[in-house]
Amino acid sequence: MTATVIETVIDAAIWLMDRARQEDVYLQPQKLQRLLYIAQGSYAAMHHGRKLMPAVFVAGELGPQDPNIMRLFERGRPSNLGAPVIRPEVERFMESIWARYGHHTTEYINDQIKFHAVYKTALKKGVGEEIPFAAIVRFFTQKERPKVEQVKTADGRTLQKWMPQPAAGPKTT
Questions:
Q1: Which one, of 141, 145, 148, 150, lies nearest residue 118 by Cα?
Q2: Neighbours of 44 (CB within 10 A)
């Protein structure tokens, strides 16, 4: 197994909570859980399946959650935990997650995630069912790909919109 780029899921959670506090925003525990899940999947999709942090996500009633973070942060950020140790390039990634999702409400994020196939599959097996990391990687890898516009014809055929390919550079001999 390849080492994760953030040493603990706790460091990632603290970073997100501190980032919210910088904007004078209360980060609800549910939203924290979903942002951790999105960060894990997005990072894996961008970095060939590499884990951002050592985390295990299970199907909760409202969305994926790491049970350890749920228990540790259920009453807010523990005051005895110091600043997270995160390298600058990873902090830039975390900042991109915050910029993309931090302004959304918890309800909005929950509504988006409840349709994720990997979450729905685990939830069908029961609350608390682990969502396999490999399934998260597959889901986010497909989700991050650009979508090709498709159109159905009257006779049922599926057509894809033609997209021009970049011109080939000059040939060298």
A1: 141
A2: 22
Dihedral pair phi/psi, residue 98, rounded to 5°: -60, -45
Reference 38, options 65, 67, 76; nearest CA is 65
Q: Is the pTM of this model over 0.70?
A: yes
- pLDDT per residue over 22-49, tens digit each? 999 999 999 999 999 999 999 999 999 9
Cα of 121 vs its chain's centroid, Å: 17
- What is the Cα Rg of the chain in Å? 19
Place of tokens 């350890």: 68
- Of all residues in the chain, what percent are helix, strand and coil, respectively (each to 5)? 45, 10, 45
65 DSSP β-pair partners? 58
Residue with tokens 């980032």: 19
Start-end of H helices in the chain: 9-22, 29-46, 67-73, 88-101, 106-113, 117-125, 133-144
CA distance 122 to 64: 9
The 10 Å CB-count burial string (b at 16+, else e) for 64-97 is bbbeebeeebeeebeeeeeebebeeebeebbeeb
